[in-house]
Amino acid sequence: MTSFENKTRILGQLWINFKTEDEWSDFFEYNDMGLPLAFAFTEGIVNHTNTLEQYINETWSLLLEGLETEDTGFVDLSELLQED
Asked: Does the structure show a pLDDT above 70 at 52?
């Protein structure tokens, strides 16, 4: 399983690197809180709270569902998006 810190790093990387890409627009629109919160946590802007963890975990689950992949303990975005 991917650690909370890695989830936030991956989601933050996704948001920063792909927020203007049309193929991600629906995902970004629906997760308009979880993605920037993940980035803000990774950058030390916000602190860990139970509510933050709920947003991150929901956003993470939706990402994995959309990518049709299982959580195998990812470290960064490039590993998650790596094609077999």
From this structure: yes
Q: Work out the pLDDT band at 83, boundaries 50, 70, 90.
A: low
- Whether the per-residue pLDDT at 74 is higher than 60: the answer is yes
Q: What is the 3-state secondary structure (H, E, C) of the chain?
A: CCCHHHHHHHHHHHHHHHCCCHHHHHHHHHCCCHHHHHHHHHCCCCCCCHHHHHHHHHHHHHHHHHHCCCCCCCCCHHHHHCCC
Whole-angstrom Cα distance, residue 28 to residue 24?
Answer: 6
Q: What average pLDDT score do residues 23-40 get?
A: 96
CB 31 within 8 A of CB 62: yes
Domain tally, the chain: 1
Range of the domain at 16: 4-81
Amino acid found at 63: L
Q: Please tell me the distance from the alpha carbon of residue 7 to that of residue 61, in angstroms, as a whole number.
A: 10
